[in-house]
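Reopening this ticket.

The earlier resolution said the output was attached, but the attachment link was broken on my side. Pasting everything inline this time so it's all in one place.
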Amino acid sequence: MAVMVPSRDPTPVGTIRPIARGEIAGVDDLVDFTDERRAADARRRRRWQVVRRSVGAVLVVALAYYAISLTQVFLTGRSDQAAEASPADAIVVLGAAQYDGRPSPQLAARLDHVVTLYDQGVAPVVVVTGGKQPEDRFTEAESSAQYLVDRGVPAEAIVMESTGRTTYESLSGTADLLGQRGLERVVVVTDPYHALRSRLTAQDVGLTAYVSPTPSSVVRGGSAARRQLAEAGAVALGRIVGFDHL
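Inline output:
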């Protein structure tokens, strides 16, 4: 009986050799590109981390600076430096709205405090400030002067600065008027929320300034709180750019 002999498989049998990376076209370029992209992504992440941390640090500093200014606005509005300043050269009252020669309740509260300080002998001169709107017949200074005269302050003791329409303009004009008389030590009267900026502005124009906020301000409650918030921003900014730029 014939024996069947299996035919030889023509495929050689041996160990399969791994293919090296470089033997496939483009693999090196692909790997290099992937590595570069990962490195670039890592650099971008690091840059954004630096930016976020820097912005965060700036915001923290800005908020702290604002909080300090707000605290100072609050505390200054509750301080009265009239006794410390006395005798001063002049009492300076900052203007507010007037209605055809009649001071508004806000301005009247300031003027009533001026009368008290004058009667106490805090200073022999009173400077009233404030200009007028184009349609007005009277300036804030004129209305204030008449109000004080009606309440016993001698007309010869009153000096009018009647051109200023901002805190800076009024105090700058006041400094010029008092400088002509050789005077510079003043007690500034205004509302509590406005006291710190007024004192800093007065010092900015060359006056030796103290503040005595009116205790009968009509600006109270939520309105006073909102104005304190705004004043804190104005004080913080004014210390950086100058109060004449506000």
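Reporter confirms the inline version is readable. The longest strand covers residues 185-189. The CA atoms of residues 111 and 155 lie 14 Å apart.
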